Amino acid sequence: MRILAIESSCDDSGVAILEVKDSQPILLADLVSSQIKIHAKWGGVVPMLAKREHQKNLTPLFKEALKEASLLQKHQDKPEDKKLQEVKKILEREETLAKKLIPFLKKYQKPDIDLIAVTVGPGLEPALWVGVNFARALAYFWNLPVLPVNHIEGHIAANSFQNKINTGQKFPAIALVVSGGHTQLLLVKDFGDYQILGETRDDAAGEAFDKVAKMLDLGYPGGPIISQLAQQIETKNYELITGIKFPRPMINSGDFDFSFSGLKTAVLYFIQKLKKNQIKKLTPAIAAQFQQAVIDVLLAKTLAAAQKYQAKTIMLSGGVAANDELRKQFAQKAQPDFNLVLPSKNFCTDNAAMVAQAAFLKIQKGEASVSWQNLQASPNLRLK
Ligand code: KG4
Ligand code: ZN
Q: Could you tell me the CA-to-CA distances from 113 to 138, 327, 351 in Å, in that order?
């Protein structure tokens, strides 16, 4: 069986094709089109711009993915006009998408795909709807079933890819999902069986990276830039070198919730007291100290949860899990007590391969697909 997966919950458009052969998943194509350049000017993701870009990106990505999977074939017969009119109706709020998809449907025949998996939430509503309506249009036109996927479950499923850093996993597991939109700590009894132990009460961890980078005039997204700057400072000597110390919010709160807004404000107050030339000089140290504050809180809470629930495995995912220092310190502190699973970096940030993988795991558990008419975006979807 082959699964087509679509991701459009934030600022990455993703299309992947996964083949299941002898019960083993094989990725035939995994393409992501990042919109970073477009949102960078605004210092963060602008939902309506994300919607516009997804509309432009999805059809070309889909075509390229089919090509990579050797599934792209031109039509022998012309498709019915009536059906194309219906596609136009399904995409009436995504005019740009319709303009790209309809000529594609006229030119190429139904590929050898059995199911469409699509992210339905949580995420930015206008962005989610583009992927959802893309899936609805294809499912209608080619008469295919659809499997709605929770974006967070997608991130967690990225942990089940075989990768060089670590393989295999054992349950129960503690999953830390840290991205630009989400910070959640979950107890995973099995794939598909989740309990949210805690989450951020204000900013997501990645959002804090992005906002601190904006304060320091470093650009967007902040995570990779802050991570690079922080590498200029020796971890052990932060305080000796600079005397900078930021708070570790809620580290001793006794629960599994997070808060990063106060940390962000602490950085702001610190910067406001400095002269311009001092800010420039201290930027790597500020970046390193801020990053360490985030890591300390994430590490402490994750380890506490793993101990409390006697987890066998700790799984990291989401864009912030691509952070080198975080990966290094988790590896030092979590192993050997726990089996640490770190997806490769390209599977930490948003992608459609993780959506395909989540769908594969759902099918294995016997989850039923839905018909395209019942599919809708759920911006505030929560895991159960
Ligand atoms: O998972 P993702 O691609 O999208 C969301 O679902 O939000 O995560 C994007 C977030 C951004 O906030 C970005 O700054 C952060 O992940 N990020 C990082 C790193 N790479 C991306 N944060 C810290 N260190 C990194 N290396
Ligand atoms: Zn994400």
A: 11, 36, 19
Q: What is the sign of the dihedral through the CA atoms of 190, 196, 200 and 202?
A: positive
Ligand 1: centre distance to CA 160 (Å): 20
Which of 209, 225, 329 is the pocket-test mutation for ligand 1 (most atoms within 8 Å of CB)? 209
Contact 30 CB / ligand 1 (< 6 Å): no
Please, which residues have CB within 8 angstroms of residue 85's CB and are 6 or more apart in sequence?
Answer: none
DSSP conformational letter for 205: H
Report the phi/psi class of residue 219: left, alpha or beta, with left for phi > 0 and alpha for psi in -120 to 50.
Answer: left
Measured in angstroms, how far is the CA atom of residue 123 from the centroid of ligand 2?
A: 8
Query: What's the CA gap between 182 and 184, in Å, rounded?
Result: 6
- With 0-12 / 13-18 / 19 or more C-beta atoms within 10 angstroms meaning exposed / middle / buried, residue 300 is middle
Planar angle of CA 151, 33, 321, nearest 5 degrees: 50
3-state class (DSSP) for residue 244: coil
pLDDT confidence bin for 234, thresholds 50/70/90: confident
Q: Closest residue (by CA) to atom 19 of ligand 1?
A: 223
Q: In angstroms, what is the span from residue 127 Cα to ligand 2's centroid?
A: 13
Q: Which two tokens stand for residue 60?
A: 């070309």
- Residue of the CA atom closest to atom 23 of ligand 1: 223
Is omega for the bond preceding 122 within 30 degrees of 0, making it cis? yes
Give the C-alpha separation, 246 to 198, whole Å.
22
What mean pLDDT is reported for the chain?
A: 94
Tally DSSP H helices, then E strands, for the chain: 14, 10
338 three-class SS = coil
The answer to whether the beta carbons of residues 321 and 224 sit under 8 Å apart is no
Sequence letter at residue 341? V
Please tell me whether the overall predicted TM-score, pTM, comes out greater than 0.90 for this model.
yes
* 213 band by pLDDT with thresholds 50, 70 and 90: very high
Say which amino acid occupies 256. F
In whole angstroms, what is the distance from residue 160 CA to residue 6 CA? 18
| Max intra-chain CA distance, the chain | 73
DSSP character for 349?
Answer: S
Determine contact, residues 218/271, Cβ cutoff 8 Å: no
Amino acid at residue number 350: D
